[in-house]
Each structure stands twice: as C-alpha cells, then as structure tokens.
TrEMBL record:
Presence of the UniProt keyword Electron transport in the record: yes
Key word Transit peptide present: no
Name used for this protein in its record: Electron transfer flavoprotein subunit alpha/FixB family protein
Electron transfer flavoprotein alpha/beta-subunit N-terminal domain: residues covered: 9-197
Pfam family, one: ETF
Highest taxon in the source lineage: Bacteria
Family affiliation: Belongs to the ETF alpha-subunit/FixB family.
Keyword terms, alphabetized: Electron transport, FAD, Flavoprotein, Transport
InterPro entries for the chain: DHS-like_NAD/FAD-binding_dom, ETF_a/b_N, ETF_a/FixB, ETF_alpha_N, ETF_asu_C, ETF_asu_C_CS, Rossmann-like_a/b/a_fold
CDD domains: ETF_alpha
Length: 333
C-alpha cells in the first residue's frame, strides 16, 4: 500500500428520518481542523434517500465536497447497503482519514468497513490530532478510563475512528461557504447479509436525547428509588430540561440505559448539569465534565463529584430538591 495515494479527510454524515444528526456536524468541525492542518480537502459523504436538500448545510458547517449517495435502499440504515456505499466512496476518493460518530449506526458500520478495507479503526476517541508525519493521533480512554491511550495506524489507510456525540465542537454555521456537490450511483450487491426493513417506528417523546438537552438533572444511587426520581422530573420540567442518570441508577432499573451518562453511557455537554446523589466516579465524570456549569447535591462532603463541580450543596437530595423546585417555581410564575 502506498500511503501517499491517500489524501483528504472524509466524514460519514448520519441521517435519521432524513434529519442530519448533530454528531456529524461536530465531526465536520473537527474534520475541518484536521484537513486544514494537512492541507487537504474535507469531504462529507451522506448516504440517504432524497437527502440532497442537506448538502448546502454540510458545506456551511465546513465541508469542501459533499458526496451524496441517494438511493431508496439507504433511506433507513441497514448495515450492508451502507457498508457497500461507504466502501465504494472510500475506494474512489482514497481519503487518509475517515471519521464516524460513535452512535449505534456508526458503531455498527465503521468496523464492517474497516474490515472490508483491511485497515484499522480506533473506537470512541476523545481527541484527534495530526503529527508532523501526517499521522492521525487517535486518543481514547483505556483500562476503565484510568489511562489515555494514543493509537496510530502507521501502515494502513485510511486511518479510521469513531467519536462519541458531544465530544467535538461544531463550527459556526457560515452561509457564505462554497463547496462542491457530487452524486454517486450505487449498484447494490444482494448478498447474504442483506436485510429488508419491514417497518420503522419513531421513538416517543420520553426517549428524547439527553445529548440534545441544555439542562440535565441527573440522579444516582443516592436518589434511592425509581419513585424518588419524580422530584428530578419536576425540576427538569421547571427548567425545560431532561433527566439523566448514573450507571448505578440505570443498573438498579430506575432509568433507561439510553439516559446513562458516562464512559459506557453518553457524553453530554449541557449548559447546566445537576448531579443529585452521584458520587462522581471517574467513569461518570468522563461523560459530563465538559458541562458549562456543574452543580452537585450530595450528603457526603468528601464525595469526588465536588472536585469537578462549580457549586456544591452538601445535603440530602430529598430535602434540597423540594426547596429548589419551590424557589424555581416562584421565579417561573
Ligand atoms: P454511588 O457511587 O453509590 O454514589 C451514590 C452517592 O450518593 C454517594 O456519594 C452518596 O454520598 C450519595 N448519597 C446517598 N444518599 C444520598 C442522599 N439522600 N442525598 C444526597 N446524596 C446521597 N458509571 C456511570 O455513571 N456511567 C458510566 O458510563 C459508567 N461506566 C463504567 C464503566 C466501567 C468499565 C466501570 C468499571 C464502571 C462504570 N461506571 C459508570 C460505574 C462507576 O464506577 C460508579 O460505580 C457509578 O458511577 C456510581 O454511581 P453513583 O454515583 O450513582 O452511585
């Protein structure tokens, strides 16, 4: 393999129900920076159906070239047609770097593509940099978050990684940016892994994404029971936020895994993160430390959560929360 044959940065753009996912815009922000450092162009590949209307948006968020693969078979994600589409685009364009969101779709797709292209993949990166030899330095937590490992792919191209939603920052949208838009036609090979989507059900409102919320009221084991979470829901309602949880609360069956914050949950970056009865284990903190304002309520004044908090309240959540809700209600009324 001649590594110099590969040039450019490519971002896989994820759409669901023909809506562009935020993580893809975040990756365009990071991809733009890497492309500028390498002196190459930033490509965005968007598989979907009737998704052409989004091409301009992707340019406005940093792409130099948008590659549309528009086909009915790509309307709803299934692994095989998406893999075939991405493998074709990567083989045609030969980018040196390919980035995916570490979403359920990205986590399914990226390993399949890396295996087919016989190249490496680093999952769940928290930092991406390039060195003087054009090598992508892919950093991710290892050994339960106790060390950070920086991984390189010296002999194979493209260098591929997945990045969790909320980790990178998107650029300011710039409506004056210009870019090229190209279409790629696919002839899909029907092989044994080809599945047919029979029906598709949209998630209900209770399944709203905690990564999209500006305010998160998060509960841990200290909340005590599923019923006690009603206080957190009341406060979230008053602040137009959502309720999230630590793994201990999820493992106790008090909350859906979908709402877990942390290393094996989601990385969140809200304006306000209120941690209620959460100790602040490293695996939890890894998912919320980038919040703008962190407030913790914990009855143990030595709890590690206070080390990452801007404001700490030492007290019983069951006493503090009703008081806070009452005061906020007064302001809201
Ligand atoms: P605890 O650690 O039990 O803390 C409860 C806290 O509540 C205590 O600080 C206590 O003082 C306080 N408290 C108790 N009663 C009250 C009260 N009435 N009022 C106020 N405070 C009270 N954890 C995650 O959260 N997310 C992850 O993604 C995650 N991934 C992990 C991955 C790995 C590989 C491993 C090994 C662990 C992971 N964990 C994760 C688990 C993590 O190590 C902790 O066990 C977990 O975060 C603890 O949750 P907690 O803070 O709710 O519970």
């Amino acid at each position: 393999m001649n590594l110099n044959d590969y040039r450019g940065v490519l971002v896989f753009v994820e759409q669901r129900s023909n809506e562009i996912q935020n993580v893809s815009l975040e990756l365009l922000g990071k991809g733009r920076k890497i492309a500028d450092e390498l002196g190459v162009s930033l490509m965005a590949v968007l598989p979907g159906y009737e998704a052409k209307k989004h091409a301009k948006l992707l340019v406005e968020y940093g792409a130099d070239k948008v590659i549309l693969v528009d086909d009915k078979a790509l309307e709803i994600f299934t692994t095989e047609p998406y893999t075939q589409a991405l493998v074709k685009v990567i083989n045609d364009e030969k980018p040196e770097v390919v980035l995916f969101g570490a979403t359920s779709i990205g986590r399914d797709l990226a390993p399949r593509i890396s295996a087919r292209l016989q190249t490496g993949l680093t999952a769940d990166c928290t930092s991406l940099e390039v060195d003087e030899d054009r090598m992508l330095l892919m950093t991710r937590p290892a050994f339960g978050g106790n060390i950070m490992a920086t991984i390189v792919s010296p002999d194979h191209r493209p260098q591929m990684s997945t990045v969790r939603p909320g980790v990178m920052t998107k650029l300011e949208r710039d409506a004056t940016r210009k870019g090229e838009i190209v279409h790629v036609d696919m002839k899909f090979e029907k092989n044994s892994q080809y599945v047919e989507v029979i029906s598709f059900e949209q998630e209900t409102e209770e399944k709203m994404d905690i990564q999209e919320s500006n305010v998160l009221i998060s509960g841990g084991r200290g909340v005590g029971s599923a019923e006690n979470f009603s206080l957190l829901y009341d406060l979230a309602d008053e602040l137009s936020g959502l309720v999230s949880a630590s793994r201990a609360a999820v493992d106790s069956g008090w909350m859906d895994h979908d709402r877990q914050v942390g290393q094996t949950g989601k990385t969140v970056r809200p304006n306000l993160y209120l941690a209620c009865g959460i100790s602040g284990a490293i695996q939890h903190v890894a998912g919320m430390e980038e919040a703008d304002l962190i407030i913790a309520i914990n009855k143990d004044k030595g709890a590690p959560i206070f080390d990452v908090s801007d404001l700490g309240i030492v007290g019983d959540v069951h006493k503090v929360l009703p008081f806070v809700i009452e005061e906020i209600k007064k302001i809201n009324d």
